[in-house]
Amino acid sequence: MTSFTHICLLTAITTLLAASGYSQTYNSIRIEHNNLLPQTLIEGIVPIKSGDSFDAVKSSFAHESLLSFFQNRGFLEAKITTQHIATPASVDLIIKINEGPLYRLGSTRFEGLKKIRERDVRRELRYKPGDAYERSLLFAAQSRIYGLGLFEDIGIRVSTTAAKTAEMTVAVKEKKAKSVKTGVGWGSVESERLSLRLKHINFLRRTYNLNFNVTYSRLWLEYGAEFLNRRFFETDIEHRLDASWRTENQPGYDIEKTLGRGSWGRALRYKIRGTLAYKLERSVLLNFDSGINSPGNRENVSSAIALLGNRDTSNDPFFPTQGSVIQGRLERSGGILGGNVHFNRASLDASAYRSVWKKLSAAGSFHTGVIRQFLKSSPVPINERFFTGGANSVRGYRERGIGGVSSLGNPIGGNVLMGGNV
Description:
This protein is mainly beta. It has helices at about 5-20, 40-45, 55-70, 120, 135-145; strands at about 25-30, 80-85, 90-100, 105-110, 150-160, 165-175, 180-185, 190-205, 210-215, 220-230, 240-250, 255-265, 270-285, 300-310, 325-335, 345-355, 360-375, 415-420. Strand 11 and strand 12 (about 255-265) form a beta hairpin. Helix 1 (about 5-20) packs antiparallel against helix 3 (about 55-70).
């Protein structure tokens, strides 16, 4: 008698007993297997404990969960049978598992690669031939290959052999390497906004990213370029270089900035990403509000190094309902690094998200920062200070509208920031 038929018959008997006033509970759950996996690991998959009320659907779910569990770990021929020994008051559940042979990973071949080198994709496979076949390894590889941003579609096919190996075929569809994007928009801060972006995602046919962009709004004009190498010297370190020229029209001053920056980052343990960055920036303040007492020099050169950490456990990058995002930054400008801007800065931003009821979620965030000059002759320039207020920080206030102001009513920023949102 099959497990499905057995459960259907037992359900019918249980229904008749329940109609007669009897209720059943699981008296014991016994698992018999070949000891190829730890007993405690298998017991954790079974959603039934001694003393639970009998539920035939739950028994069926336990059967399917165990079968999926073993197949996902390479026991592709695993067989699970369940047996119920019932009395009017209780049920003894016996689960017998025949794991069968363990399948191991074989070779991996690729289909659909045209302009992208196979070696640049193959290095995203963190498994090797001979490892135990686990579907989670394939899902993780598929996710990493998607993360390259080079493909429109990725599929993985698996075929087994008489030698008990699983052979993989990764079929991909490449994106166009070159693209042009334009945008038109309007925002409450920058008013009209126009953008143009030129992008190459396989520069020099080495999966380097190269971007050129132009952005114009009522508030700023910016020209920028960025180079991205996801494998710095064939390691897991992601390397970025970017340069930009920008003019801004802020309340109380105008500024022209020329920036060059390099960063090196990689994923660490516990979902933490660490980044080391260096920037060299020249800024010129124009049309200055004379009511600001200590604006810093009109022309500043900042040579700074920064250490950044990020931990993101949110369940969605755009509309999270669970998890948290924490970002910290330590920065040192000037001193032995050169330039005429000398300060230390630390900042922390933390956000948490919780599902409250159905589609209703709660979100809270906390922001803090402090910046301190370490040479009295070099005040912190106004463009390096903290500002808050506006649509992206504290709604109900104008942009940069919280904090001190000059004698002419323009924001002057501050050296300490602390705020929260719910």
